[in-house]
Amino acid sequence: MCHPSEYGYGHPTHHAPGRASHHHWGCCCAPDYLPRRFCTKEEAITQLEEYLRNLQAEAKGVEECIVKLRKEQT
């Protein structure tokens, strides 16, 4: 996954040299791994759409939790 901050996500120092302890999603496991730093516009759109779906699923889960808690309250 690339992390272009110009699309509103990621952070530019994620893959900075010397940050070997900063792993997430297993993206930097190989010592010779050179991550891509820039996404194509299509990749950014796809990633943002996936992020939006995840946010919507999270919001639905929160709404369901609220409904459940309100039912338990009465």
Description:
The chain is mainly alpha-helical and 74 residues long. It has one domain. Helices cover 45% and strands 0% of the residues. It has one helix and no strands. The protein has one helix at 41-73. Mean pLDDT is 76; it is low at 11-17 and 19-25.
Provide tags for this entry:
74 residues, mainly alpha, 1 helix, 0% strand
Oligomer: single chain
Low-confidence stretches: 11-17, 19-25
User: How many structural domains are formed by the residues?
Assistant: 1
Derived from helix and strand composition plus strand pairing, the structural class reads mainly alpha
Series of H and E elements:
H
Outline the secondary-structure elements.
Elements: H1 41-73
Quick take:
The chain is an all-alpha fold. It has one helix at 41-73. It is elongated and about 60 Å long.
